[in-house]
């Protein structure tokens, strides 16, 4: 395992204040290693996007980070806590060190500006001493990097297909060669053929440029092939984390098992799609104990009384799970 580039420690994110606050992210611990693809999966409302916006300090009101640390390890220099950066430091940090491809990225481009204007603005804001010619050459290189002809710089977003707009957003995210790229459901609005092309291109770019990726999606089938490790989120908490192959081969948490049985296998024997009964929990009135126990087919006595800690099973030290089915688990340190 390579050195960590981003460490999330005990992160808590609320919507609102005081007794009326909704706890959307609850004591999340995650480590992203340099050059790694870490997948984050879970149903809608599990807290995945809130986690991404919290760690980048992009939460819209009334969202607020109520606790924890987000420690970034630059290539050169000491680690920094992103949550303590001043506005000026944060402005320099975004895009240059960590960038984000937003959910619904196809509609994130400004419809009244050409692609060139939007790419050049990012470069000029962070590299004010660069020349207009060098910025234009860089923008052309970025488009070629994501498989788009350089003459598309003069196009408006409505003149591009959905897949091309998505690739422009990825090019923008890579403009300043960040160490971490956060992708929040970047392929949701695309058809399956375009999804495959985008993911293949991302894998190639990651190998070439050696950046780390936090890939967020509700579609676990995408992550199994694309990710090095996968973390499963439910009710604002991480409930399982493992290398992708191990998690696909043998899920430990019943929720992960339910997600894996919600899509058909492309190879091997046929299997019945069972899905997960019930609905995700209401974050305003979370159940006692394990948040998944009202929907869990394997729930037993302690599940409705105590919240299981995310821990490393003795038999599988390379993974972690928060489930009373694995009482020998030891807590994962912050």
Task: Give structural notes.
With 334 residues, the protein is of the alpha/beta class. 27% of the residues lie in helices and 22% in strands. The protein has a 7-stranded mixed sheet, sandwiched between helices.
What is the structure about, briefly put?
The protein is an alpha/beta fold. It has helices at residues 48-55, 87-93, 115-126, 132-145, 162-173, 192-209, 220-226, 244-249, 254-260, and strands at 4-15, 22-33, 37-41, 63-72, 80-81, 98-101, 180-184, 212-217, 229-234, 237-243, 311-312, 320-321, 330-331. A hairpin with a 6-residue loop joins β1 (4-15) and β2 (22-33).
What topology emerges from the helices and strands here?
Elements: E1 4-15, E2 22-33, E3 37-41, H1 48-55, E4 63-72, E5 80-81, H2 87-93, E6 98-101, H3 115-126, H4 132-145, H5 162-173, E7 180-184, H6 192-209, E8 212-217, H7 220-226, E9 229-234, E10 237-243, H8 244-249, H9 254-260, E11 311-312, E12 320-321, E13 330-331
Parallel strand pairs: 3-8, 3-9, 6-7, 7-8
Antiparallel strand pairs: 1-2, 1-4, 4-5, 9-10, 10-12, 11-13
Give the termini separation.
17 Å
In what range is the share of β-strand residues? 15-25%
The overall average pLDDT, rounded, is 88
Gyration radius, rounded: 21 Å
Helix content: 25-40%
Summed up, the helix count is 9
How many structurally independent domains? 2
Question: Could you tell me the number of beta strands?
Answer: 13
């Amino acid at each position: 395992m390579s050195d960590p580039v981003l460490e999330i420690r005990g992160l808590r994110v609320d919507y609102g204040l005081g007794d009326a606050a909704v706890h959307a992210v609850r004591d999340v611990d995650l480590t992203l290693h340099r050059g790694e693809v870490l997948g984050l999966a879970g149903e809608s409302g599990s807290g995945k996007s809130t986690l991404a916006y919290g760690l980048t300090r992009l939460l819209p009101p009334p969202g607020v980070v109520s606790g924890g640390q987000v420690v970034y390890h630059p290539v050169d220099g000491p680690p920094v806590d992103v949550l303590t950066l001043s506005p000026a430091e944060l402005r320099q940090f975004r895009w240059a060190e960590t960038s984000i491809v937003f959910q619904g990225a196809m509609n994130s481009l400004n419809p009244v500006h050409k692609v060139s204007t939007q790419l050049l603005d990012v470069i000029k804001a962070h590299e004010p001493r660069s020349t207009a010619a060098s910025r234009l050459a860089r923008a052309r290189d970025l488009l070629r990097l994501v498989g788009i002809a350089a003459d598309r710089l003069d196009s408006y977003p409505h003149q591009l297909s959905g897949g091309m707009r998505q690739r422009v957003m990825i090019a923008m995210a890579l403009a300043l060669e960040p160490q971490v790229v956060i992708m929040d459901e970047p392929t949701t609005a695309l058809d399956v053929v375009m999804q495959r092309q985008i993911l293949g291109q991302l894998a190639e770019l990651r190998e070439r440029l050696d950046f780390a990726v936090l890939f967020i999606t509700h579609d676990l089938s995408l992550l199994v092939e694309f990710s090095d490790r996968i973390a499963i989120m439910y009710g604002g908490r991480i409930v399982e984390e493992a290398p992708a192959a191990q998690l696909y081969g043998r899920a430990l948490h019943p929720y992960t098992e339910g997600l894996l049985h919600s899509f058909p296998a492309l190879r091997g024997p046929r299997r019945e799609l069972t899905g997960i009964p019930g609905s995700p929990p209401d974050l305003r009135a979370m159940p006692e104990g394990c948040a998944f126990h009202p929907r869990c087919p394997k729930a037993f006595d302690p599940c409705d009384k105590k919240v299981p800690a995310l821990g490393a099973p003795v038999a599988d030290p390379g993974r972690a799970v928060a489930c009373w089915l694995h009482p020998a688990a030891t807590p994962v340190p912050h």
